[in-house]
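FW: tagging you since you asked about this chain on Friday. Here's the raw sequence from the shared folder, copied in full. Didn't touch anything.
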Amino acid sequence: MRGVIRRSSLRGNPSPRGRSTSHSADSTTEQYDESIRRLEKSGDWLPDGLEYHVAFKSNGNFRVSEIWDSQKQFDAFGERLMPLLKDVGIELSGKPEVLEIHNILER
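HL: got it, structure written out here
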């Protein structure tokens, strides 16, 4: 197995990359797919600052985990995203969990 450390993880600057968010939603894959279609149509997908986006089911819940360059970019996108999610019938089950990332390895 070969791993590469992303240069951004070696900068020593706490603000660029390094924010991971994860949240659960009471939604279906169809609702998720519709929200992505609407974001693409509006030109708001992929948003500035979003490094990775993974959507999956875990323990019966639909989850999305993302890595963002900054909290500010995540918050700005969230302001645009929340009305769209409400419109397609998606309700988040609580606030997103935000974690600081120490390191990212890729193959």
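FW: Strands lie at 4-5, 19-26, 50-58, 61-68, 91-92, 97-100, 105-106.
HL: agreed, and The chain has one domain: 4-106.
FW: great, closing this out.
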